[in-house]
Each structure stands twice: as structure tokens, then as C-alpha cells.
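Note to self: keep these together.
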Amino acid sequence: MRRLIDPLARAAFTAAHKALKLGWFVRRPRTFGAHALALTSDRKAILVKLRYAPGWRLPGGGRGEDEDKAEAVLRELREEIGMTAHGRVRLSCELDEVTDWKRDLASLLVVEDVRYTPRRWSWEIERICEAELDDLPRDMSPRAARWIAAIRDAL
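Structure:
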């Protein structure tokens, strides 16, 4: 059953994401995001692969303009990777970017000593991996690679 659901979910989410991008092209919205360089106790980065977009990425997502950045990123980590515990959380940097016709303020936080139990199946997240910062997967999304480089400069 899972073999049937996974490709269908990927196709549905990819189509929905493309429709959103069309709306962003028309509206050019201002958005706010919170994304984590989530590190395990042995300093490996936790990365996610989304069903609707290519490449490995940092966990995270949208937040309200007035929503606390740390609270938003911790919520996203619980939702996306099943985070059960964490250590120190700190803002590393904020990047103002234009992506997919959105004007986005990406708040990049470092979350240390993350422990997690991945969900058995997720609508949004296809896979989770851990990687050494010096040995990241070759198919990283370009945006995630830029973000990790920016965060590493601040580590």
C-alpha cells in the first residue's frame, strides 16, 4: 500500500506546490520562515527530503510575522522529524531572500543536542537523514547549501 501512496502523495504535493508558486508570482507576498540547523549530540546535521521539492533541506517552515522564531523552529522540528528533546537554541542569522517570487525573511537557528523519533509516515516529509557538516549529501537543495554556509560562518 505504501508503494502506491508515496508516488501519489509526491504527485499531489508537487502539483499543489506549483499552484502555490503561480499564486506567489501574481501576489509577490512577504513571508517569514524559521529553519534549523538541527544537530545531534554527535554534531551531525539532521536533514529532510520533502515530497514536493527536490534535494535535502534544513527542517523548518513558515512562521507568523510576530511569532517567536525559536518557538516556530521548535514546532517545525516536532512536526517534521518528531523531535522529542533538544539543547540550546540560538539565532544564527537572518537572510532576506527572494525565492519563488516571494520576499522571504529566513531566520536560521542552530538547535543543539536534538533527539527525535521519526514518524512512521508523513504527508510532507519523505525521508530524514543525518550527515556530517563536512560530508553533506550531493543532492542538497541550493538554498539549504547557502543557508548551511551562512550558519557555519557564525558557528
